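Quick one: structure tokens for this chain, please?
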Amino acid sequence: MSQRTQQAREILPAKRLEHVHYPIRDIAVLADQLAREGKEIIPLNIGDPPSFDFDVPEHLIEAVSKAMLSGKNGYGPSLGVPEALDAIRAVAERKGISNIQSVFITSGVSEGVDICLSALVNPGENVLTPCPEYPLYSAVLAKLGAQANAYYLDEGSAWQPDLEHMSSRIFAGTRAIVVINPNNPTGAVYSRETLETIIEYARQNDLVILSDEIYDELELDGETHVSIASLAQDVPVITFGGLSKGYLVPGWRLGWAIVSGPAMPLRPYIEGMYKLLRARLSANHAIQYAVKPALEGPQDHLDEVLAKLRSRRDLTVKWCNAIPGISCVSPRGAFYAFPRLEIRDSDEKFVKQLLIEKHVLVVHGSGFGQAEGTKHFRIVFLPEEATLERAYRAIAEFMKEHYS
């Protein structure tokens, strides 16, 4: 019997994925290869506090363990367990957010962003996103066939949004404005005046504000975080938060969204989000029982977290501004710095060569977007100071060897 041999055809991915990039993880592929070769990598690329000297509060672990042992291991409600939703709503109201129309729990802020954008935008429409930005937003929009419509953050004004540029980017197909405050990757904290102007743009153009506030507990200079939703009851705002950063459990994937604004205009949009929430059944059930003890229980860990981050921030800025060819705006929130490079090479080449030669892992600024003609890289300053010192000495040596 003759048998015909046929070469299998390639199974090609969807064309929509051509514009989906995630540089924070992509650069780690090269780092993993070097680690397999026995190189010790200094990781300054991912904002994962428990990978360093930040301990998860014990009462959160106890709450989750108790939930699992008491049988909370099946599906949960699509929106989230009531006691967690009530605790999130109460904190939002204490922050001044009123006219709350819905609260729901997601598998990290990432799922919340995906759901809220998927329920809002159609192919060909666009959403205002910061430049530089956390690349999740552009990735989700690319998947949806919509456009990330970049507005600049102004490095010369401590990375505040360039409001004139933002205004000039509002078109007929613009549906929403993304605000990340405190900001990733720059560490900026936005002024009240900036937030009020953004609200006015949204009000005048019937836009939804998507406000990513996952770092709201991590303002480094003693200021109280201002939630943009607290400044306007009449504008639709979705405020994203979660346990990942302030409560040191990014691996638990526990995020939430608070929908506030006028009830009638928001009703169809909320129902669209509910359809998607029902379709994915529920977020992690047992983990949700950590929300109430996290938000209502002891907050002592934050004092230690903030003290460490302030010290490491100051060390980072001092080093960056002392190395010829590098300068850095001091971050006021989160645990990121976004230094500027004055070099002849691309920032991507800089980052890859630094990793290969000095085994220091940072992320190139072009992966987040940046103003034309500028070059940056992002530092995560979570490691202990001795590790940071070692990394910054290596960066200084690299700059001297290549760009003196």
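The chain has a mean pLDDT of 95.
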